[in-house]
Specification:
Radius of gyration of chain A: 14 Å
Largest interface: A-B, 24 and 23 residues
Order of helices and strands of chain B: EEEEEEEEEEE
Oligomer: heterodimer
Strand content of chain A: over 45%
Largest sheet of chain A: 7 strands, mixed
Shape of chain A: globular
Distance between the termini of chain B: 40 Å
Radius of gyration of chain B: 13 Å
Number of strands of chain A: 11
């Protein structure tokens, strides 16, 4: 199947700093990527939908100034957690949909990024 | 609002037994349904994708059925192995690309 790569897989930062997480579709083009947050023993929570070349669409309750999303190309979306605080500590996962080919319509997920804010 | 429920939340089976995981959803107007596997601290691995027009999909020991009218999908894993231990997530997709996830079935296969 298609591959989505996330980096870094783990990051520890101090409170008040910013952290950038990258999501890349390695072998397909994706106009749309999604960013999720996962809490322990909870289902994935959609944070925002990232559209190539346009502004991201944020879910209700997600601060767009806190979670900056950029989708500069058909294979790369980034999530920047600005002025991170301990409550931002979580597991962040991205996903992407293939535009064409055998996997069209199927969603593929990255490996996730564990953020710990001290 | 689409709600997805997975039952049971957790189960343990001895190696070799067949696994049956259930997923139900409240709104039958779906684009597709996808089953994922998630290992602790990892991302999601796509297992099977069933389009709304399909009734089932098979891949190796895995078989997933879809009954859209009753809002149900079942994932069967034949002859379970310890390596099948993981959390299995069901996700329903609507036409706007948005996925609604269940909380998962946490499976432990006992050697």
């Amino acid at each position: 199947g298609a591959v989505v790569s996330q980096h870094p897989s783990r990051v520890i930062c101090k409170s008040g700093t910013s952290v950038k997480i990258e999501c890349r579709s390695l072998d397909f083009q994706a106009t749309t990527m999604f960013w999720y947050r996962q809490f322990p023993k909870k289902s994935l929570m959609l944070m925002a939908t990232s559209n190539e070349g346009s502004k991201a669409t944020y879910e209700q309750g997600v601060e767009k100034d806190k979670f900056l999303i950029n989708h500069a190309s058909l294979t790369l979306s980034t999530l920047t957690v600005t002025s991170a605080h301990p409550e931002d500590s979580s597991f962040y996962i991205c996903s992407a949909t293939a535009l064409s080919g055998a996997n069209t319509g199927e969603l593929f997920f990255g490996e996730g990024s564990r953020l710990t804010v001290l | 609002k689409q709600e997805v429920t997975q039952i049971p939340a957790a189960l343990s089976v001895p190696e070799g037994e067949n696994l049956v995981l259930n997923c139900s959803f409240t709104d039958s107007a779906i684009y597709n349904l996808q089953w994922f596997r998630q290992d602790p601290g990892k991302g999601l691995t796509s297992l099977l994708l069933i389009q709304s027009s399909q009734r089932e999909q098979t891949s190796g020991r895995l078989n997933a059925s879809l009954d859209k009218s009753s809002g149900r999908s079942t994932l069967y894993i034949a002859a379970s192995q310890p390596g099948d231990s993981a959390t299995y997530l069901c996700a329903v997709r609507r036409g706007n690309n948005r996925l609604a996830f269940g909380k998962g079935n946490q499976v432990v296969v006992i050697p």
